[in-house]
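Listing S7. Sequence submitted for prediction.
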Amino acid sequence: MNVAILGAGGFIGGRAFEHWQRSGAHRPRAIVRSPSSLARLARFEADWRLADARNEKASTAALEGCDALVHSVVGPERTMLDAIAPAYRAARAAGVRRIVYLSSASVHGQNPPAGTTEDSPLHTRHALGYNNAKVLAERQLAALARDGAVEVVTLRPGVVFGPRSRWVLDVAEALRARQACWLDGGRGVCNSAYVDNVVHGIECALAAPGVTGQAFFVGDAERVTWREFYLGLAGPLGAEAGAFREALPAPPPHRTWRDRAGAFKSTAFAQTMLAAIPSRAKETVKGALRGWAGSPPFDPFALPDPAAIPVASLEMTELFRCTEKLPNTKAGRLLGYRPPVAFAAGLAESVRWLEALGWRSASPLSP
């Protein structure tokens, strides 16, 4: 098929493009917002278009001649939400038959309840705005798809790792800074998904019949702990379990005035009001609020205190405490999903990438 990839400059979208360029399984077309996003793809004779996913007219032109669309736009929460309706309408106008939307297992939270499946009810009461944005994006796309013009299949991968992944690089960087940590000895479940397994899930979702309107978990076959994930990366770099300290959990979340202001700012009413306010006046108000908040100035030269007990972020606190391995059962039954890459093989490929960047197994703290 001729498959357009919105967000081809990102981690998953870029990997899908590379894979199909090499395998010939599909004819990919990269759709990116700026030429700089094509840097990784420039080594191929790439079919590409420039279009902002939020611009319906530009996206329609970019999608002409495509059979399917992989929607993998990443960015701030507002960007993710604003890229749904224009992209769907553009796909409909261009004659695209199916959209595969890359959502996230985070719609169920970083520590989902026992027995969670794709059919478990979603809500927007998550402490993390990213989770709520993904829930709202799924709902928005499902509402648009009720017109029956374009089929929509949603994928919900968990912790997607591999070469170029932040999950991989963050471990190496934390080791170098002597800030590597976990909670409860890393015994929590990591719902890992090697990036090539996610690409395989996309291929299955593009081809499977009778699955429009369905959502699917796609992850590794193995049940993996964070300890296994971290040590699988750290060991080949010369680090051992002793390099990871026990962190303190994040304090319970609470809504500050900034949270409430941010939520109000995202409403259509607030956006209309803000558009009428001169830019200079808005900057003056922002400066006053920053001063009133009394936050200490950021010192870019300050080094972390190696002796300080690390505090896990709210996201990582929930991830470290996860006890549920999200099942691939539904994807296997309806999509024919069988993750082709073993978790250990994905880790090995990730380590090779780190070593290619200059991380030496003799000294994990000095790449």
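Caption to Listing S7: primary sequence and predicted structure tokens for the chain studied. The chain has two domains: 2-169+188-224+321-343, 257-293. The chain has 14 helices and 13 strands.
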